[in-house]
Amino acid sequence: MGVRKRNSADARKEELKTVAFAKLTNVPTSPRKMRLVADLVRGKEVNRALGILKFSNKEAAARVEKLLRSAIANWEAKNERKAEDGELYISTIFVNCAPMLKRLRTAPRGRGYRIRKRSNHVTLIVDTIANNTKESK
Question: Which of 77, 117, 118, 121 lies at a CB distance of 3.0 to 4.6 Å from 30, suitable for a disulfide?
Answer without folding.
Answer: 118
